[in-house]
Amino acid sequence: KFKKTKIILGLIKIASSKEETIEEIQKRVENALNYIEVNHLIAAPDCGLGHLTRSLAMKKLKTMVQAVKKFN
Question: What span, in angstroms and rounded, lies between the C-alpha atoms of 20 and 11?
Answer without folding.
Answer: 9
